[in-house]
Design goal:
By secondary structure, the protein is mainly β. It has one helix at about 75-85; strands at about 5, 10, 10-20, 20-30, 35-45, 50-60, 65-70, 95-100, 110-125, 135-140, 145-149.
Amino acid sequence: MPAENNGHIFRTGSFTFQMDGVQLETLKRVSGLQIRVEPVLVKTTNGQGQIKTQKYAGNLTPPSITLVRGMAKSDKLTAWLKNAATDPANCEKVNASIVFAPADKGSDKITVNLVGAWVSSWTPGDLDVTNENPVDETFILECDEVKIS
């Protein structure tokens, strides 16, 4: 079911990926985006000795976000992914954004800002010498915080 945006159905036309405010490439697919608040259980006892358990909002838990990129690959993003794969202890955390551009030009873009993003996984697509299509790459980002604007 499509998400609604300001009373309108939001159909995504494209996803773009930015690092430090610079658009690097268009993505094929994005999954795993969520904002999750960890529930905290608090038990209290009333004057009659009855125990009551209530849930309260705890810490925000940043998601693991899966991104798939296709044919047009940015050299800067490729270098960052390669560095994460070869030297994970020194992989640079960056501020990244995923911009959802709606298919309907009258709707607003949605920008998901990933604060302190770093690469936790990289996977090439199926490698097959008979395949004439470019190889897709899937990578997973972790981050310290998610902000939507």
